[in-house]
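User: For my dataset I need records formatted as: sequence, then structure tokens, nothing else. Please produce one.
Assistant:
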Amino acid sequence: MDELIKLAPQGPISGRLASAFPGVSSAGDAFQSVVKRVAPTLRAEGSGSTSDIEYEGMLRSLPALGNKPEANVMIAQIMRQKAAINMERSQIVQDYQSDLIDVQEARTRMRELDQRSIMTPEMQQALTGLSTGSLDGGSDELSDDEYLKSLGLE
């Protein structure tokens, strides 16, 4: 996915065009294929069927061609961090089941793991930039008044 994020057309215009016209970009098509393959894996096994609304929600939680590349990079990083925590959780369970650790140690390690954030300091800093307007700290979005004015609806 990381390589596709570097190659696929992304953003409010080029990404949406690539989504609307499959075949225009092989990287874009591959990107969307991977996202659509990953989405069903987000459903908890045994939770029953997934509605169309739930599936769309899963798709929106993943990288998308309509997102800016920086947002897709962050989403992919968060997914990797979450997967790493899940693997650590699995290892704790395996260590306990193999009698490598006792129940108290397993609980302590689980509590520590549950308190760990999936957000790296770099991601938190980038999100601070988003709250001020963009990832680079500047504002690349129009205010509501500016937007209405650009539409001639002042």
